[in-house]
Amino acid sequence: MKQKAFDYLLALVGFALLAAGLYLVKRGIASPEIFKALPYVSIGLGCGIFGHDMGSIISRKAIQHNPDIQKQVEIEKKDERNIALANRAKAKAYDLMLFVFGALMLAFALLGVDLAVILLLVLGYLLVIFYFIYYLAKYNREM
Prior knowledge:
Structural class: mainly alpha
């Protein structure tokens, strides 16, 4: 029951962010430089949050009165094969991400993009690498 109320609340928050962003774009209220991107960030976050939580609400409603489908969905969520496939896909995406972020940082540096942007990319890149190293060491100690 808590998850249901939380989904409705987040869907409402997402819709409010979307509406606020659209209002700000329509009115053109963005005087300082830093606030020029705020309406578009608000629209993006609002769409993402609203879409995700409405998807959860709709899927819950669709399987609510059919226990057979509900049981099948639970089995598929907990199936070891599906979990292994998802983890393998995440690992491949992570491997690709390392090369893509490295190429983007190099391209931005060669294009002469603002140093703050490059440093933020490098910080994010290193955060991901350190996160990987931390969990690699943790899992090695466990096994």
